[in-house]
Specification:
The protein is mainly alpha-helical. It has 2 helices and no strands. The radius of gyration is 76 Å and the shape is rod-shaped. The N and C termini lie far apart (251 Å).
């Protein structure tokens, strides 16, 4: 092997490699360029995968946190529902008790009203009976009074007739007594 001393102008090393590579060089460069693009795409995909994995892990972490929040919210909602149900049940029980008390009072008032109505009806029946008896008695008394007044009128008429007859008899008796006195005086005048 020999040593060569090159005294010529300096050639760019890249150009020298291209020159020494010959005809296959361009196809190898294209393959290299394709391999480099594939490697960059793979690296990008890898980085994208890493980003996706990180995003997925972050999403899972957030989902886990969201599940915890949701479980906490569900527990709080369940507790609130249970408390509300207890309060509603207590309110309903109190309202039902008040309603029952009111219904009992209404029923008692209705029963009292029915008793009062029955008492009023009985009192009205008694009053009607008393009125009917009073009207019958009044009619009987009126009839008796009318009969008595008729009898009294007849008796008064008879008394008036008797008085008239008595006056007439008295007048006749007085006239007779006068005549008798006159006759006695006449007889005495003859006897003397």
């Amino acid at each position: 092997m020999g040593v060569s001393i090159d005294t010529g102008p300096k050639i760019d090393p890249d150009l020298q490699v291209i020159y020494q590579g010959g005809a296959n060089f361009i196809s190898r460069m294209e393959a290299l360029q394709k391999a480099k693009a594939d490697a960059e795409a793979a690296l990008a995909a890898l980085n994208l995968g890493r980003d996706a994995k990180a995003a997925h892990e972050e999403a899972e972490a957030r989902m886990g946190a969201a599940k915890e929040v949701m479980l906490g919210a569900r527990r709080t909602a369940d507790e609130a529902r249970a408390t509300a149900k207890k309060q509603i049940d207590a309110s309903l029980d109190a309202a039902n008790a008040r309603l029952k008390a009111i219904n009992d009072k209404v029923a008692a008032a209705e029963a009292e009203w029915e008793e009062s109505k029955a008492g009023i009806k009985a009192a009205k029946a008694i009053a009607d009976d008393i009125r009917s008896l009073a009207e019958k008695d009044a009619a009987k008394i009126r009839a008796e009074a009318t009969a008595m007044m008729s009898k009294a009128a007849e008796e008064q008429k008879a008394i008036a007739i008797a008085m008239t007859a008595a006056r007439t008899a008295q007048d006749k008796a007085e006239a007779s007594a006068k005549r008798v006195e006159e006759l006695r005086k006449t007889i005495e005048a003859f006897h003397v």
